[in-house]
Specification:
The chain is mostly helical. It contains 21 helices and no strands. The radius of gyration is 20 Å and the shape is globular.
C-alpha cells in the first residue's frame, strides 16, 4: 500500500480537503469576529444571540436537502453548487449597511458549512474502507483546522490595523478569491452516483438509522446545546468582560486549533484501533469543561488554558464521524448523515438565543448552564452506547 493511501490521501479526499482548507482559511479571517461586526452595525445582544440561533436552525434545515442533492446529483455537482451559493453570502456580508443584512447573508453562507457537510462526510465513506475511516476523517480535519490556527490571528491584526469593519471587509474579499480556487479544485472530484435500490424518503431514512446511532444523536444534542449556549458569546466575553484585544482573541483561537491538530496527530493514526467509545467520551468531557474554564478565567493566561481545553474537544471528533458513517447504509449515506445533523441542529437551534437571555442576567450564567448540560451529554453517551457498537 502506498504511503499516501495509508494516510487516507485518496484523490477525492484530497480534493474536498483542499477545498475545506481554502474556505476555512478565508472564513476564519472574519468569522470569529462576526458578533463584534454585528455589534458595530447596531445589533443588540439579543439579536446577536438570535444570529447564533438562526445559524443553528439553518445548519439543521440545510443538512438533509444537502445530503439529498449529494446523493441525487453526485458529490461534485453538489459541492460546486454549495460553494457558489456561499460566495453570494460573502458578498452580502461585505455590502451590509446594517445588521439585518448579515442575517440575509447567512442564508447563503450556510450553504457551504451546512449543505455541503453530508457530501463531505460521504466522500470519505465512499473512498475508504471501514478500517481507515477515522484516519481519513483525521487527515481531513487537520487540513481544515490548520488555517483556523492561523487565520483568526491574521484577522485580528487586520482589525487592529484598519478598524473592525474594514478589517472584516478585507477578510471577506480574500474569502471570495479563495472560494474561486475551491471551485476549481472541487471540479476534480470523480465519484459515480449510486442509485437507490428502492427510493427512500425521509421517514424511511429515519427508520433505517440503527438504535446505537439514535443514542449517539441524543447525547450529541446535549453536547451541542452546551456549545450553542456560549459559542457566539465567546468573543464578547473575552473582549468585553475579561478585557483582551482582538489580536489576543485571534491568538486564543490559534491555541485552540493548534491543540486540536496536535491531538489529531497523536491519536488519529491509532483511532481505528483504540475503539470509538473512549475517544468520543473524551471529546464530550472537553465540551462540558470548556465553558466552565472560560468563565473561571480572570486574565489572558487563564483564557489560554481554557482554550487548550477547547482544543481537546476535537480529540475524538474524527472517531465520532467515523462511527456515524459506520452505521449508515452506503446508498443513502449522505441523506442519513444529513438527517442526523438536521435533527441535531434543529433541536439545539434555540440555545444561542437562550444564551443571550441568560447573558442579560449576568454574562457568566450561560457558561455555567452550558457546563451542566454538557455533563448530561457525557453521561447519556457513556450509559447508552454499547462498546461493541462504538468499537
Amino acid at each position: 500500500m502506498r504511503a499516501a493511501d495509508a494516510l487516507g490521501f485518496e484523490r477525492n479526499i484530497v480534493a474536498v480537503s483542499v477545498a475545506m482548507f481554502l474556505l476555512a482559511l478565508g472564513e476564519n479571517l472574519w468569522k470569529r469576529f462576526l458578533p463584534k461586526y454585528l455589534e458595530s452595525l447596531g445589533a443588540p445582544i439579543t439579536a446577536i444571540g438570535l444570529f447564533g440561533t438562526c445559524e443553528d436552525f439553518l445548519d439543521g434545515v440545510y443538512q438533509y436537502p444537502g445530503g439529498w442533492i449529494g446523493d441525487r446529483y453526485g458529490r461534485r455537482r453538489a459541492l460546486l453548487l454549495f460553494v457558489a451559493l456561499a460566495t453570494i453570502g460573502y458578498g452580502l456580508y461585505w455590502v451590509a449597511p446594517s445588521w439585518p443584512f448579515i442575517f440575509a447573508g447567512l442564508v447563503f453562507v450556510m450553504a457551504w458549512s451546512s449543505m455541503a457537510s453530508p457530501s463531505l462526510f460521504a466522500v470519505v465513506g465512499d473512498a475508504l474502507p471501514r478500517g481507515r475511516l477515522a484516519l481519513g476523517f483525521t487527515v481531513q480535519s487537520i487540513l481544515k483546522r490548520v488555517p483556523i490556527a492561523v487565520a483568526p490571528t491574521l484577522g485580528g491584526l487586520a482589525i487592529a490595523e484598519y478598524g473592525l469593519r474594514n478589517g472584516v471587509h478585507l477578510g471577506l474579499a480574500f474569502t471570495v478569491g479563495l472560494a474561486a480556487l475551491a471551485l476549481i479544485v472541487l471540479g476534480r472530484i470523480d465519484i459515480p452516483v449510486r442509485a437507490d435500490p428502492v427510493p427512500s424518503h425521509i421517514v424511511a431514512v429515519w427508520r433505517g438509522l440503527p438504535t446505537s446511532l439514535r443514542w449517539l444523536l441524543a447525547s450529541d444534542i446535549f453536547i451541542r446545546t452546551c456549545e450553542g449556549l456560549v459559542d457566539v458569546f465567546l468573543v464578547l466575553y473575552a473582549i468585553n468582560v475579561v478585557g483582551i484585544s482582538a489580536p489576543a482573541y485571534g491568538f486564543l483561537v490559534a491555541v485552540q486549533m493548534t491543540t486540536a491538530i496536535v491531538s489529531y496527530v497523536c491519536v488519529g493514526r491509532f483511532a481505528d484501533r483504540l475503539g470509538r467509545k473512549p475517544l468520543v467520551i473524551a471529546t464530550f468531557v472537553a465540551f462540558a469543561l470548556f465553558p466552565v474554564a472560560v468563565v473561571l478565567a480572570r486574565g489572558f493566561a487563564m483564557l489560554v488554558a481554557a482554550f487548550v481545553v477547547g482544543g481537546l474537544r476535537e480529540i475524538g471528533e474524527p472517531t465520532r464521524k467515523a462511527l456515524i458513517v459506520d452505521l449508515v447504509h452506503p446508498t443513502i449515506r449522505a441523506r442519513s448523515i444529513g438527517l442526523y445533523y438536521l435533527l441535531r441542529s434543529l433541536t439545539i437551534a434555540p440555545a444561542a438565543f437562550i444564551g443571550g437571555l441568560l447573558w442579560r442576567v449576568t454574562p457568566a450564567l450561560p457558561f455555567w448552564a452550558a457546563g451542566a448540560i454538557g455533563l448530561v451529554g457525557v453521561i447519556t453517551f457513556a450509559v447508552t452506547v454499547d462498546e461493541r457498537d462504538a468499537g
